[in-house]
Amino acid sequence: MTRKKAPKRKMSTKPTSKRPARKRPGPKKTPISRKPEGKQRLQKVLAAAGIDSRRKCEELILDGVVRVNRDIVDELPAFVDPQKDVITVHGKRIKFADKVYFLLNKPKGVICTNSDPQGRKKAIDLIDCDQRIFCVGRLDIDTIGAIVLTNDSDLTNRLTHPKFELSKTYEVKLKGRIDGDAIEKLKKGVWLSEGKTEKSAVKVIHRSYTESVLEIVIRQGLNRQIRRIMARVGFKVKSLKRTRIGNITIKGMRIGQYKKLTKSQVQYLKKITQKQA
To answer: What is d(CA 171, CA 33) in angstroms, rounded to the nearest whole number?
Structure first.
């Protein structure tokens, strides 16, 4: 007798479903960007010591020329305690200079940056100061008037932050007679590429058929804002002067003249940012 062969079993082509391996919960990681208690960002400390701007200080760190307690720090973020850590740049220990605050009545033709490839006169060139100072905000080259200069990077960052909206008062001289409709538009806000500007306080100082002079108070800091809103209502600015920053005024100061801010004026600027922080 011949034994019959058992039929071959068909292999299933369906994938077998396996339960994924259970991962053990690891330790909770703290985000590297979170600032450790009692420490500050290294680039901020370097800028506060007058080394350079925060952006330039970041480049110095990445270039490997910054040491903390003799160790090279070339990655960001990096945090230090300026009271305890020894910080050097190019082998020299950083020193924290006394804070200085100046008010300048900026002339026309002067720019508000610390470097200029074209070699134009800068606002910092007009102030006799051994420390590295910089402008709080900017006035364009054709605008004259009040600008604060300091080496206090913390206060500068707060004052120039949009949320603080420090009031700035301008005297605007226009070509032609401005009418009531245009003034109402300025008060309510006009549309620019960034959106509608906030409400402004507008006061007519002088008005004739050939010329109008207005006082305008704004709280935003858009680029060339006064000149642009005037163009939107059909008027060309003949001259523009910033007369006040908050309650700090250039009254009695000659064009190009500067003076140190008083203690009460510095406290006033600090108080504004602390209130709204």
So the answer is: 44
Please check whether residue 150 is in contact with residue 201, taking contact to mean a CB–CB distance below 8 angstroms. no
Which CATH architecture group holds 101-162+251-276?
2-Layer Sandwich (3.30)
- Which residue of the set 81, 116, 125, 140 is catalytic? 140
- Structure confidence by residue, pLDDT tens digits, 183-204: 999 999 999 999 999 999 999 9
How confident is the model over 101-128, as pLDDT tens digits?
Answer: 999 999 999 999 988 889 999 999 999 9
CATH T-level assignment (fold) for domain 168-245? Alpha-Beta Plaits (3.30.70)
| Secondary structure class of 173 (helix, strand, coil) | strand
Q: Running DSSP on this structure, what letter comes out for residue 98?
A: P
| Residue 125 annotated as catalytic | no
**Burial class of residue 32 (count of CB atoms within 10 Å of its CB; 0-12, 13-18, 19+):** exposed
